[in-house]
Amino acid sequence: MQNVAIIILLLICFIVLFALFRMSYKMLTKVRQEERAENANKLPNRQLHPKLKEHKNKPKR
Q1: CA-CA distance, 38 to 48, in Å (whole number)?
Q2: Distance (Å) of CA 4 to CA 11, 13, 42
Q3: In Å, how far from its chain's centre is CA 54?
Q4: Band of the pLDDT at 61, cuts 50, 70, 90?
Q5: Residue pLDDT, tens place only, 41-57
Q6: More confident site: 2 or 43
């Protein structure tokens, strides 16, 4: 009887663990989609390295 109870308890634990993984995966995909939609309209802030700026601003020969 105790062995059956332990097996049932383990099965319940695995089911709960699987459900938590599934919920967290769904939440993660939802957040990723929201971030993609949010970042699609933004331009990234990029800066040139100071040496590259100098090279770009120098007059060509």
Answers
A1: 25
A2: 11, 14, 57
A3: 37
A4: low
A5: 887 788 888 888 887 77
A6: 2
Residues for the chain: how many in total? Answer: 61
Residue spans per domain, the chain: 2-57
Query: Token pair of 36, please?
Result: 């993609």
Cα–Cα distance for residue pair 43/33, rounded to 1 Å: 18
| DSSP 8-state symbol, 40 | H
pLDDT cut 90: percent of the chain above it: 61
In angstroms, rounded to a whole number, what is the distance separating the alpha carbons of residues 50 and 19? Answer: 52
